């Protein structure tokens, strides 16, 4: 065979003399010496520099592709290729020759599939790369591996032969045409505010210095409060999940998972309740049914309910719910029911047969509806049934005691009679270990034993298909398994601080770790049910995605049902959930709001994230890796004795695990910690995944529950277990605040974790909210009281670590500061009235400077609000309702919270604002009847005073100006304008006081009269009228 010029040979190898066909695409490769050679047998092509052709024949459509050598694109023939097997590197080593020999030996292989040609007859290069393990998939490209080890060791890319790696989530950025003007307007308003405040300070009102001073202080505080609120909103983002990719990665057959069994981690769902009278058992039962029917691997899901009241009514209601779930859960799976809360499902107004393809749906729905109606009757009849049962058993015990007494007393009853304890009995004829109807020692609220009952056993690993006659329903081909469910009521004894809801949640954390040990924990209130059956999978997309090992929790937005159409008191709170929380997701993550949150169990235990950053500088602009967080390479060097990589093995050498006193004295519990950490790691299916686990690691079944395991779970919910531990201080839900949710999330962020805000297309969860004015104000009072406690505690963001981003720190600082705005807000609401009473104004005169600044501030605020409405997706009416209730709540509940917090900090006095009178709805058939109920409370005093004082001031100011010799209309209009601003914001409050009929309650008239008389007398004392008899100026 002839040789071609050495210029176009591979290390001067002889090449084929065959005439190359004309082609537009030229292939080249780089040799070990750095030269570029042609693989297209185009001998006229010269490849200097960046592979540009220098020959005369250079068509504009010709281009060059750089690719590695394969058996079919070698310049040499098979004979010469086999002869030339020794190629030296510049340093004289023969490593390159050995590699080339292995590569060219493929030509001698009899594996026809490896040399499979494409439909055009050309060699399939991509197929060859994958089948020989010579290529690795990136995102849209294949490249030559640096070290050739023939694909041995690690995860084989053949597992993903036909499916390139895909992320489970993606960020959806806010359009720049919305976000850029939004940020620009914020900066512009900051500048305008600075100049306005400077002008206000340098131009005092000499005629009314006290009005000027009060207004200046309030305006400076409002500017500071606005900055704390608006700056964390500079980087809002949206996120999207890919459930199809999640299914392909974790629930499809693969070499590491031949059966296609789910490789997803376990999830434990917590529901908390305390009083069946305030939280009806039927509501809690519907929440439980929606949890048991979620679309998640049945063997990986466990549900727990914490009954902190130890009520037998809740216990038996949950038992009834589990029995009904045996039909409801398969029915939902068979017909793909949404939502899976039966009460909400049967209340839907739309056509239930829409998108239902199975012919027996109508028959099945009619039957299950009838069963649910009977289920509700049984639940509602439980109180009477339990009381009758207790009376029967108590009478039997009384007769037994009388018979024994007669036998001991010669057939005669003792003169003092027989005393029998009035107990509460279970259906099996034993005493209920929790709270009795007639409280006794060891059986009262705050004094009862711990209770743990497995009501639904651990499901089998393999699906259990139903038959044609499953309770008159045909469940053929439907998995009829039900997830595990446990009823938990922790032990309570006098003298112990049980820490309310936070203590109950920590008890469930420990019990669930021993029973199921799900790597993730979903926390729901008893009135928040699963509205989207795929919600858990949506959250799991973030936890299992690249970088998911740094996420401590996924917060879902709160959505509410039963709110009046006008949302009079801003119960939906969309400005916070769709605005503030979405913006925080662009920083370090949203705050934890108490429900609808999926936690990483390992993060709840108080450990640091696997990777964290520290933010130095005045504004946290210098980002550096946290030094004392162990990196994976450091971990590998520390475990040299291990042959396996540390990032594929359970974490068992964390220093906190060597101190069991921090977690308690249960070794079984401490042994579950590294297991939960390992199972919560993302899948190591890509080279960019850090701290991952191999595919197929979570396919083994859970061990069955035995008596010692359940006994240990009961032991860890005892009231003494947390003594001398860090539960509530560093571990679990944090104690010491009414709003334990915010503090718990803050501690995690402070350690370097981040959180994610997951807004699903279909609402993930839905719940109820108080629509009555009094109930709504008391709810806001509790939140504000918790914020004041945070401000005066070590959880104040001022003391945060450097792992908290600067803007995230500002957001948490605002959480503790916002109730104090009420002090300045109340003063500012009285300023218009004071201006009208005195005939003065906050400025010397309404000159062009003041009006120009006021116009600019108002216009920029309006534009900012419109753009915020645009990127957050909320409505203008929702934004306005939020503004109105900000003033109503700020002048009532927030002010009361500040007073309560200051008294608690300074004097140690606890004040509880409770209802003083209650009324019932006028129309029981009206869904919104509670909206019109008037329940007087002390929180009404301040808003009502503001309204009355401003109304009286308008009348007095108008009268003075009209009958004045020299009327000052500008000051009157300025005062009336600001008074109307206050009264417009108070309009929902006035409607709440009037009730359904629009009649003002008598107490409002009485209070208005008292306020009017008091204000008039006070003003006459302060500013008595001039000693003038008439307008002629004649003195008496």
Automatic annotation (TrEMBL):
Location relative to the cell? Golgi apparatus membrane
The main location class comes to: Golgi
Signal peptide span = none
State one molecular function term (GO).
glycosyltransferase activity
Check the record and name the InterPro entries matching this protein. Cellulose_synth (IPR005150), Nucleotide-diphossugar_trans (IPR029044)
**Is Transferase tagged as a keyword?**
yes
Q: Indicate, by first and last residue, each region the UniProt record lists as having compositional bias (Polar residues).
A: 30-39, 630-651
Q: Which Pfam families match?
A: Cellulose_synt (PF03552)
Which keywords has UniProt assigned to this entry? Cell wall biogenesis/degradation, Glycosyltransferase, Golgi apparatus, Membrane, Transferase, Transmembrane, Transmembrane helix
This chain's protein is named Cellulose synthase-like protein D1
Q: Where does Mn(2+) bind?
A: 501, 525
Q: Identify the species of origin.
A: Eruca vesicaria subsp. sativa
Q: Does the keyword Glycosyltransferase apply?
A: yes
Compositional bias of kind Low complexity: 8-18, 76-87
Q: Which domain of life is it from?
A: Eukaryota
